[in-house]
Design the sequence.
């Protein structure tokens, strides 16, 4: 049985949980993620949408050009996104997990857009932009976690 993982927004109005093995986890350095997060990158963990349960609160919804985000209307915390290319997968922002150290990224995407002071000195897979297929990130997770 997979361990239950819980998370929520900054103000505590929204709570969620899931109880499954992640599909992948990655750090995105694209300029959209930089702007949306107000930081240098966003780290996301992918899980099947049908495994994600909102246990408290009502989420707000924001459409963007390649999918949509779910967020807290009170504090503005973006909790997860759902890309058009994988509508059955939720990309949860790792920082919203109660234990954000419970998962670690297996890849950097949009690495060519990383800010010059961000050092990508780790041995994670690197994609200069968007991977050709989202399956590449899932395969990287399986490769690392199958040992």
Sequence:
């Amino acid at each position: 049985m997979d361990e239950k993982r819980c998370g929520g927004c900054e103000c505590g109005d929204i709570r969620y949980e899931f109880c499954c093995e992640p599909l992948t986890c990655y750090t995105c350095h694209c300029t959209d993620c930089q702007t949306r997060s107000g930081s240098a990158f966003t780290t996301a963990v992918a899980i099947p949408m049908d495994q994600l349960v909102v246990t408290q609160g009502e989420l707000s919804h924001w459409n963007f050009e390649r999918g949509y985000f779910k967020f807290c209307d009170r504090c503005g915390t973006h909790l997860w996104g759902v890309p058009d290319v994988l509508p059955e997968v939720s990309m949860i922002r790792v920082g919203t997990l109660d234990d954000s150290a419970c998962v670690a990224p297996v890849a950097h995407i949009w690495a060519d857009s990383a800010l010059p002071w961000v050092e990508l000195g780790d041995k994670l897979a690197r994609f200069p932009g968007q991977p050709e297929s989202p399956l590449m990130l899932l395969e990287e997770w399986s490769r690392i976690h199958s040992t």
User: Anything to note?
Assistant: The radius of gyration is 15 Å. The chain has a mean pLDDT of 92. Residues 135-145 form the longest helix (11 residues). The chain is about 10% helix and 35% strand.
